Structure formats: structure tokens, C-alpha cells
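Q: How would the C-alpha cells look for this protein?
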Amino acid sequence: MAECCSKSSECGTGCGSQGIGVYADVKDYYGKQLKKTSDLKSNACVSPAKPTPAFIRKALKEVHSEVTSRYYGCGLVVPECLEGCRVLDLGSGSGQDCYVLSQLVGEEGHITGLDMTEEQLEVAEKYIDYHMKKFGYMHPNVDFVKGYIEALQDAGLKENMYDVIISNCVINLSPNKSAVLREAYRVLKDGGELYFSDVYSNKRLPEEVRTHKVLWGECLGGALWWKDLLLLAEEVGFGTPRLVTAHYITIGNKELESLIGDCKFVSATYRLFKIPKSCPRERRQVIYNGAITGFEKMLEFDVNCTFQEGQVAEVDGEIAAILKGSRFAEEFSFQPVVKTQPASTGCCPAVSQVLLCPAVGMWSKPAAISHSHSSSTELG
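A: Here is the predicted structure in C-alpha cell form.
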């Protein structure tokens, strides 16, 4: 168990009787109490106002209105470079993200959506044929499976099966987050990625917040302290969590605000890679070839690492191993760092906790966070 957790329930590594109750409460909340997005009681699971690439907006418009109306995620979770990939969506709900991704991976790729809520799965499965016909596919490239995100093996998902796993504001709902990360690591191929949006807190939450049914259902009561995520990811075997976006959450409900006291929350997207052990972690100069759809001129890999098409960038050993050992390998050329030449511009300074924190400056200055900021991330 990660050393961050003196009590297993504090960072979501425990389950037991409390976990059983959480599953029942979440099923009831998302299966019976919530019927549409507007039924949510806070802003925690509402998408931030941030720019979405045109090709993703186009794909979203193709999704049936009943599917989108039952969407409870906290922003679209769509990583780059997906053509031909096998993708797993943990907590797929009504299937919105699955049907968006179905268009991006193409007919040769495949999307599996996993959810434990029968009512949500019924909506998702109802529209498989509708979407396949709309996309012009001869055979479905989407399927949905009932199961728990902590127990993928029980749902029939084998190890080394997926190129990418996504999850959209769901892991916080699990009473055993360590098991979620372990199972994700198991079913990912070497070089695979867990790309997920979730809610994080500025400290470990008190018991009265963690055990409140509505706060848990609204993605607040189960939020991890962001430092616990870093330690759990390391314990499982993932590389350094890389922060993609973050924005401060305004609750928008006076009753719930009074319950959380001085706890503060952010919605953040991280990417975690299962870095192949065979990939050497040596500094490299890399050149992005600009061939990823929608990111031809520039690829924003994380908040601290942006690649310009055709430009040489020097990266640290872990980034080099990620790029070389993942689906991004064909999108870059690699060369050794030439010490006799002037240092090239590095896109990725050394990792520090400041760069990993989803809300440096947010915790003490929430009013300064602009939801319409072009990057939606404030570090400072």
C-alpha cells in the first residue's frame, strides 16, 4: 500500500463494507436519480468552457441526442493519435465518449465501454446500430460490457489488450482507486496509455465529506488528494503522471458548499503511460512530423511539453521512452543529444511537483481562474 495512506479509505485503496455501499449508492444515483445532465446538483461534473478541436466537435454532433443528454462526464476525454487503436472507456455511462472515439479510431479500431449501471448500458447499447449506420461502418467497432472498473478480469478483459484507456470523471466514484489503476495497467499493452479526467482535492477529505452520498455521487466525496494519485501511480508501475489540463471547480450549490468547508477541488486531466521496460530512458532530440489529425502544426503533450511541427526539441529520458515505446513512435524522429552543439530548446524541463500539481495557485486564488482561458490550466 502506498505510504501516503495511513488509513486505506483515506486515499481510496480500501473497499470492504463501505465499498459495497458506495457501489449501491452510485448505481442508484446514476441509474435512477439522474435522468439528464441538468439533474446534477453541482458543477463538478459539468464540462468546462474550453476550446474543442473542430474534428472532435464534428464527431460529437454525430452522436444521438438521448446519449448526449445522459452524459455526466467532466469534459471530453479524447487523446491524440487514435487511428486503428483499441480503446477501453472505464465508466462509459450512456456511451457518448465511445461513439465519439468510434469515429476517430476508424472501422479498423475498436472501442469497449465498461459500466456497472444497467440503465446507462441500456441507453448505450440501444444506439449501436444507429451509430454504425451513421458512420458508414460494415461491422460494429463498439461494444459495451457490464462490470466494475476495479475488476476488469471478472468482466472478461484480458491483459495486454488495449492501446489506450480513457475515463471521464469516474475513478473518483470508486472506493478502491488503487485497484482501478492496477487493473488498467494490467489490460494495457506495453506503451499503452491511461488518459483520464477526474476531480482532485487540495488535501485528504474529512470523513463527513467522504461518506456523504450526494457529495460522492457529485464526484466530490471520492476525490483524491492530488499527491496520493502520484504515489498510487508509482506504486502500480506507471510512469510519472503528466498533467494535461486543470480548472478550478465552483460547486454552485450553497448547501453542498457548506458541507465541504475549506476543501477545494479541481477537475484535471492526466496521462499515465505503461512505459516498456525495454525502452532506454535517455535524453533525446526529437522532431514531430505533424501527421496527427487535428494537431498538424503543434502537439501539446502536457502542460509543460509542446512539440512544434518540424522543430527539434530536446526531451528527458522518460518522455523519450514514452514517445519511442508508444503509439506516438511513428509521429517522431529521434536522434542522440549532440553535446558539442549548442543545446536545443527543450520542451520539457525536469519534472517537479509544481508541474505535477493540477492547481498550484488555484487553491488560494480560486477567483483568478478563468474557465474561458485558452489552455484552461493555471500553474503559478
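The first strand starts at residue 86 and ends at 90.

The CA atoms of residues 300 and 306 lie 4 Å apart.

Upvote if useful.
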